[in-house]
Amino acid sequence: MTVIATLGPQGSDGYQAARQYDPQATVLLYNHIPDLIAALSDGRADFAFVPVYNTREGEVREYFRVLEGLEQGHWIDNVVLPINVSLGGIRSDQRLDQVRTIIGRSTVFRQCEEFISQHMPDATLVSVRDLEAAALDMRDKCHEHQVLIDTEEVINRAGLSLIARELAPYNRTRFAVIGRYSAAQTGYDATAIMTRPLADRVGLLVDILNEFTRRGINILDLRSENDIKTQKLQIYLEVEGHQQSPMVEEALTYIENKVIQVKQSLKILGSFPRVDMRIKRIKTFGFIGSGAMTAWFAEKLRGEGYQTIVCGRTSTLRPEEMIERVDVVLICVPISVTAAMIRQYGGLLRDGQALILLAGESESPLQTALETTATGVEVMLVHNLWGPQAATMKDKNVAVVRTRKSGSLCSEFESFLYKYGAEIHLDSPEKHDTLMGVSQKLPTAISVALAMTLAEHRIDFSDIDTHSTLTSLYGVLSMARVHNQNPRTYAEIMATGGQGEKIVASFITHLQQIANLAQHSRIDQLCEIIAENKQAMPPFFLKNKMRQARAVDAVLSDIGFKGD
Ligand SMILES: NC(=O)C1=CN([C@@H]2O[C@H](COP(=O)(O)OP(=O)(O)OC[C@H]3O[C@@H](n4cnc5c(N)ncnc54)[C@H](O)[C@@H]3O)[C@@H](O)[C@H]2O)C=CC1
Ligand SMILES: O=C(O)C(=O)Cc1ccc(O)cc1
């Protein structure tokens, strides 16, 4: 039989939280938080339930210090309990303006502050630890003009009459479940960490937070306290991910060794399944296509608590069956087959579902999706501008093309991109395709053509570094990147249709024109062209790009980055 230690009396919210967690458990009731921890430590209890946060009161300050001293226990789970606070007394028709004394617990008084100041502003608040004894005393002595605030169960158990219910709406308390063994990973976890009192150091808090940020780890909670004795800062953090997940583990090790630089300066209170207070409409995402980008998004979505179903060409589950079971269908196949997939499956989506295209071309796939889906189906296109090797989407660009049929499911997907730090750019279909002509089709074509040219002239690749200028290196880097990834990705990019085509066509015309002028030594004309081009570039753009270029130059001139 499980034994849970929590704050009493019987019927208290701690008691109810324990019941909610395990209806069969034996519940041991105490009046002080340290007593719960003691019961866990000496083996009287399997779990201690410690209130940590209340939606009306905020943090329960006492727990901060108690958890800090936790030696053997681990924070392994949470219970969020709706708290219904009621008012009891000797008579159910007690007039509130005649109440002189209110008995209760100090935390409950804080939760009911609004009600008390509105209805019984002149009453004296008497805060008690042993509520049960106080309630019985009140009943036995028939104290008129005295009332008690707590759960209805406590009021009933003491034989008092109910005067009013729901004194504090939206009142919920989060209890930490402290156990003796740490909790295994579920894939949707959070980790609570506390620092020891920290010595002053410029930027320490920012530097600690940055280690999570740069690893794409979301911070759920952050608090600080001053250690009573030393008045040194102590930081409490709750971050997404299990302490054993590589990213979290790496961040914590780095913070301890490189940021704080003090051994055992971090205390991991525990990892537990994440407490999700947000309302999510999407439960399941279904993918059509089982390639690299699908694997990347599916993993990130699962980490956010969503279920995912992936259908590839060889998987036994067919897209027809998958579509029936999901809220959002993501089509993530090569660009050249995206429209065909939409035509094949778009009509199977029901009203209330969403079709989100993860693809590098916008206009024609979106038009197909709008034509083939029912009126009540949401449609949107998302083009992530990072590849499947990216560790996180933090600070990376993503083009989002919403349509007249994009609704709240699409917004929820957008929120997911936002949450993990992606830079969202809202485009029209035409704008997206034109800009992809500039940032993908053309640079890829140039890179591939450059490699073909080097090959034709049997250029020795070791001569590239010895003869490169700072400027010429950029093109070489781009060529190397394109030829170091999946050829299909870049072949598909070069073959995209839509507005991007005009960019490549126009480039070819201009290249030819420049080559002709150069061949005929029209140096003045070439100068004029460059000057005219510069006129079109806003000063902020040139300034910013030159700044970035110098930063790249500095890195590339570093001996460690020179080719060997
Ligand atoms: N790989 C990358 O760097 C990026 C890719 N994307 C986009 O993601 C989408 C998917 O790309 P990846 O996952 O990289 O490709 P991938 O080649 O890794 O996977 C493509 C998937 O589509 C399936 N597939 C291929 N031909 C098919 C056909 N004729 N019928 C049905 N299914 C077929 C394959 O079996 C595979 O499951 C593309 O639209 C691409 O534009 C977007 C940003 C970056
Ligand atoms: O990492 C790079 O350089 C990429 O080019 C990744 C990439 C490939 C295909 C896309 O549609 C978007 C981004």
What does this structure look like?
With 564 residues, the protein is α/β, with parallel strands linked by helices. It folds into five domains: 3-83 and 174-178, D-Maltodextrin-Binding Protein, domain 2 (3-Layer(aba) Sandwich); 85-165, 3-Layer(aba) Sandwich (D-Maltodextrin-Binding Protein, domain 2), CATH 3.40.190.10; 184-273, Alpha-Beta Plaits; 284-427, Rossmann fold (3-Layer(aba) Sandwich), CATH 3.40.50.720; 434-561. The protein contains 21 helices and 22 strands. Strands 17-16-18-19-20-21-22 form a seven-stranded mixed β-sheet, with helices on both faces. Strands 1, 2, 3, 4, 5 and 11 form a six-stranded mixed β-sheet that branches. A five-stranded mixed β-sheet has the order 8-7-9-6-10. Helix 10 (292-303) links the parallel strand 16 and strand 17. The chain is elongated. The mean pLDDT is 94. Bound molecules: 1,4-dihydronicotinamide adenine dinucleotide and 3-(4-hydroxy-phenyl)pyruvic acid (ENO). 3-(4-hydroxy-phenyl)pyruvic acid (ENO) binds at residues 360, 385-387, 481, 489, 493.
